[in-house]
Amino acid sequence: MNIAIIGLGKMGLAIAQRALNAGYTVYGYDPNNQTARHAESLGIHILKRLTDRAMADVSIVWLMIPAGTIIDDTIAQLIPIINKNSIIIDGGNSLYTDSVRRAQDLASKRIAFLDCGTSGGVHGLEHGFCLMVGGTQKAYQDALSLLEVIASGGGVAHVGPSGAGHYVKMIHNGIEYGLLQAYAEGFHLLHEGTYKNLDLYQIAKLWNQSSVIRSFILSLATNIFAQDQTFDNIIGTIAESGMGKWTVDNAHQEQIPVPVIETSLHVRAESRKTGGNYATKLVSLLREQFGGHPVNRKT
């Protein structure tokens, strides 16, 4: 089967490599020439433009590009050239209502659409991704062989109709906001609270041994504290993708309280005004560890 990956950043390239390693013929497109050349060196067939004739031989097109109108613009370019009965998968962080609209529009053109919440960050290449898929059962089954090689073992599921994949990923990211904030606040208190000079590496490592708060995030914190516990050269501003806000907006619409997630969102916004504190520095470093997100450092 021929597939195409549009967007060869950290996660897009990892998805392409996992498919390539599983025996798929993988085409790729990225407007960044250096990124495209690197992908080509790995065995990916690079397309010079989205409308390359090779796209007519592709069964599945996987979009790994930012949310917003760029998704619609890309799909509009693909529609005239890809085969009918092919599948477009949006693996980025799109707003779920946009995914519902896109699925309906593409269905009228006999093109299937799956919205695929994708989690795994920079570790996805080695360990596989967690894939939360929305769309028709038929499209899911048709794409399942590809989804399974991209996912970790047991890391793919059809979670509901169109939009559900991105909705589940949105809530996933909202939970992530709260978890990061809770860990960061706890370590902030350990660092500057009643007892001074506690070894945060030792504590994080200890907690990750059968403690009820052990987790992948805590293992990443352990890695961070092994290198540095002062964060003197870190600026504590935290960026966000928008999914946390979408989660809170949806909660307000449904009249469901989400005070932890909402507070973590406010903390991030405040950090961009004030430069943050020890806790926001740790959140920023954790985001770098699992997602490759940039950290602002003092020069």
Could you describe the 3D structure shown?
The chain has 299 residues and is α/β, with parallel strands linked by helices. Helices cover 51% and strands 15% of the residues. The chain is built from twelve helices and eight strands. The protein has helices at 10-21, 33-41, 69-78, 96-107, 124-127, 137-150, 164-192, 200-207, 216-227, 243-254, 259-274, 278-291; strands at 2-6, 25-29, 45-46, 60-63, 87-90, 112-119, 129-134, 151-160. An eight-stranded mixed β-sheet has the order 3-2-1-4-5-6-7-8, with helices on both faces. Helix 3 links the parallel strand 4 (60-63) and strand 5. Helix 7 packs across helix 11 (259-274) and helix 9 (216-227) crosses helix 12. The longest helix is centred in the middle third of the chain and has 29 residues, at 164-192. The model has no long low-confidence stretch (mean pLDDT 96).
Provide the structure class: alpha/beta
From the N-terminal CA to the C-terminal CA, the straight-line distance is: 48 Å
Oligomeric state as shown: single chain
CA gyration radius, whole angstroms: 21 Å
State the shape: globular
**Biggest sheet details:** 8 strands, mixed
Instruction: Order the strands across the largest sheet as they lie in space.
Output: 3-2-1-4-5-6-7-8
Low-confidence stretches: none
The number of helices is 12
- Rounded average pLDDT: 96
Query: What is the element string, with H for helices and E for strands?
Result: EHEHEEHEHEHEHEHHHHHH
User: Helical amount among residues, as a percent range?
Assistant: 40-55%
DSSP E strands, number? 8
As a percent range, the share of strand residues is: 5-15%
